């Protein structure tokens, strides 16, 4: 299949449409017959290069030329070494250290010097998996996932078996296998331990749970991070947030349509900017939080201890789970968001209210923000 070529103008228009958040990325991908991963890559590239537009380009051309010639000499010297490194790399099993989705996102569709067929061979993925026409989720799938979300929020100890029974009792014809698939895609699981509940990166280290029996006595003692499902009228998006356990203050949050790794990393970086550093940073054992990029980001802050929930025990991360429940009952379920932008605006308003206006009985009727920033 011939690889499509897109002009910079076309890419810019698509990215601007994504940033408007008037449509989901799935809708935009489907309408333009472009792979969802490609849209995510364009968006990431656009956001990374945006600051360059505002930087003054006042460089000496002679220096540029000299630097170029120096770099050229260096590049020629590197050719032999890189050839050896490539041979060594091909002997390694990339599939054992990255997920299939991560490797698919590594494909550079604009790299004319390295055809997609060669890239897929090096990455160990099937080229045909890259070529598909994105399809919008059916209204039936959307409705079922929304209902699963409400059941799970009300009964967080329900596993796939009880959720299936509940749906069947409500007149929804669905089997447990399909419910399990939906729950995996939504990133939810029952709060009690059970087999094969955590979809973590098996090759990555899982850190011990450090909060058992710990007395939480001050801000920045413990932070937690998690991801939850947010419903839209015809689709859904994902929300991640970092919470301070002592004050219940939400330090940072972000929405994303694809569960890409970037939105988790950006949320963590923003939390460090806002709140400094916690003594302990807790998460579940999901693939985002056992990934090397997440672990390495936390290791950039040597004083931070990494903690992970016991497998299948969402209650180990109870503070963020309680916040999800409040958010959904007090905001999400009362609204009917049509677009990602509408969801973002309303959730932003709720975050401000939650942090700075709504007092908590457990905080002696102070707000989370006043306790955290006091």
Automatic annotation (TrEMBL):
InterPro entries: Homeodomain-like_sf, HTH-like_dom, Integrase_cat-core, RNaseH-like_sf, RNaseH_sf, Transpos_IS3, Transposase_8, Transposase_IS3/IS150/IS904
MF (Gene Ontology): DNA binding; transposase activity
Classification via SUPFAM superfamilies: Homeodomain-like, Ribonuclease H-like
Coiled coil: 58-85
Keyword presence, Chloroplast: no
Keywords: Coiled coil
Record's keyword annotation contains Coiled coil: yes
Source organism, top-level taxon: Bacteria
A GO BP annotation: DNA transposition
Integrase catalytic domain location: 215-374
Protein purpose: Involved in the transposition of the insertion sequence.
Protein's UniProt name: IS3 family transposase
Provenance organism: Lentibacillus cibarius
Organism lineage: Bacteria, Bacillati, Bacillota, Bacilli, Bacillales
């Amino acid at each position: 299949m011939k690889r499509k070529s897109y002009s910079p103008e076309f890419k810019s228009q698509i990215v601007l449409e994504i940033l408007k958040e008037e449509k989901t990325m799935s809708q935009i991908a489907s309408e333009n017959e472009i792979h969802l991963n490609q849209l995510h890559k364009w968006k990431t590239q656009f956001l990374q290069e945006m600051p360059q537009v505002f930087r003054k380009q006042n460089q000496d051309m002679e220096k540029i030329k000299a630097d170029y010639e120096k770099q050229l000499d260096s590049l020629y010297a590197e050719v032999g070494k890189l050839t050896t490194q490539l041979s060594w790399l091909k002997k390694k099993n990339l599939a054992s250290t990255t997920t299939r989705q991560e490797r698919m996102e590594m494909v550079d569709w604009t790299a004319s010097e390295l055809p997609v067929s060669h890239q897929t061979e090096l990455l160990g993925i099937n080229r045909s998996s890259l070529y598909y026409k994105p399809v919008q989720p059916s209204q039936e799938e959307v409705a079922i996932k929304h209902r699963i979300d409400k059941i799970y929020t009300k009964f967080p100890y329900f596993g796939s078996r009880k959720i299936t029974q509940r749906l069947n009792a409500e007149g929804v014809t669905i089997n447990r296998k399909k419910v399990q698939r939906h729950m995996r895609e939504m990133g939810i699981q029952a709060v009690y331990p059970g087999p094969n509940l955590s979809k973590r990166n098996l090759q990555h280290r899982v850190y011990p749970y450090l909060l058992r029996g710990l007395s939480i006595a001050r801000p920045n003692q413990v932070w937690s991070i998690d991801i939850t499902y947010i419903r839209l009228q015809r689709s859904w998006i994902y929300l991640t947030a970092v919470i301070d356990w002592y004050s219940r203050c939400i330090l940072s949050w972000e929405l994303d349509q694809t569960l890409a790794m970037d939105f988790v990393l950006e949320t963590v970086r923003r939390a460090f900017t806002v709140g400094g550093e916690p003594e302990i940073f807790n998460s579940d054992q999901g693939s985002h939080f056992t990934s090397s990029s997440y672990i390495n980001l936390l290791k950039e802050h040597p004083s931070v201890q990494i903690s992970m929930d016991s497998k299948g025990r969402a209650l180990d991360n109870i503070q963020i789970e309680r916040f999800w429940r409040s958010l959904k009952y007090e905001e999400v379920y009362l609204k009917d968001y049509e677009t990602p932008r509408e969801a973002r605006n309303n959730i932003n308003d709720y975050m401000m209210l939650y942090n700075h206006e709504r007092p908590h009985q457990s905080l002696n009727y102070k707000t989370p923000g006043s306790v955290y920033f006091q």
